[in-house]
Amino acid sequence: EAGVTQFPSHSVIEKGQTVTLRCDPISGHDNLYWYRRVMGKEIKFLLHFVKESKQDESGMPNNRFLAERTGGTYSTLKVQPAELEDSGVYFCASSQGQVNTEAFFGQGTRLTVV
Amino acid sequence: AQSVSQHNHHVILSEAASLELGCNYSYGGTVNLFWYVQYPGQHLQLLLKYFSGDPLVKGIKGFEAEFIKSKFSFNLRKPSVQWSDTAEYFCAVSPRYSSASKIIFGSGTRLSIRP
């Protein structure tokens, strides 16, 4: 069975450009999460989807970030326009249940804004 | 505020050495505890977890961790490391009966093993 897949693995863009990150969760997992790790610091929660609905987006840093999960399958995270401080590793995870269930992570997308 | 502190940013060991990575957390309630590992170029994966019961938890690849409630600690141990253990290790905590949206991660410890 395929795990959580993220695309691209690396992205280098200029400040002011737009980037879209994609996450394909494990098939059948209703819960999808985005996290971000900036400059080797902690991995921090961004938002949580249950199917196509946003359950919790309290970690989204500002309105330059837009996450979608149309149809409740894969999700995209768009940054527009990108700023230098958006550089980091963006992780996606999925889980079958919510409470006390294991979340399975992807390998992350390394975003560099120059 | 909830937080997780990993004491070492980078640890370098020789093969067959014993490993202990420190982790302390700050949270007022009952918690779930995790250690995740990311091998170079691979997924972030769960190494072991503690929800309740025996505070000494066995994980994959010979790792174990001990939950000491009085010390708010969940240190990771392995008696004899291998070159293949080179990776970054993350300690994490979440409130009991919560989803992955409530997981708080530490800043990670990079482990380098000399062959």
Summary, kept brief:
With 114 residues, chain A is mainly beta. Chain A has a single domain (5-113), classed as Immunoglobulins (Immunoglobulin-like), CATH 2.60.40. Chain A contains no helices and 11 strands.
Describe the protein:
The complex is a heterodimer of chains A (114) and B (115). Chain A is mostly beta strands. Chain A has strands at residues 5-7, 10-13, 19-24, 31-37, 43-50, 53-56, 65-68, 75-79, 88-95, 104-105, 109-113. Chain A has one domain: Sandwich (Immunoglobulin-like), CATH 2.60.40. Chain A is 0% helix and 49% strand. Chain B has one domain (3-114): Immunoglobulin-like (Sandwich), CATH 2.60.40.10. The model of chain B has no long low-confidence stretch (mean pLDDT 94). The interface between A and B is medium-sized, with 29 and 26 residues.
List the helices and strands and how they pair.
The complex is a heterodimer of chains A (114) and B (115).
Chain A: E1 5-7, E2 10-13, E3 19-24, E4 31-37, E5 43-50, E6 53-56, E7 65-68, E8 75-79, E9 88-95, E10 104-105, E11 109-113
Parallel strand pairs in A: 2-11
Antiparallel strand pairs in A: 1-3, 3-8, 4-5, 4-9, 5-6, 7-8, 9-10, 9-11
Chain B: E1 3-6, E2 10-14, E3 19-21, E4 23-26, E5 31-38, E6 44-50, E7 56-58, E8 64-68, E9 73-78, E10 87-95, E11 104-105, E12 109-114
Parallel strand pairs in B: 2-12
Antiparallel strand pairs in B: 1-4, 3-9, 5-6, 5-10, 7-8, 8-9, 10-11, 10-12
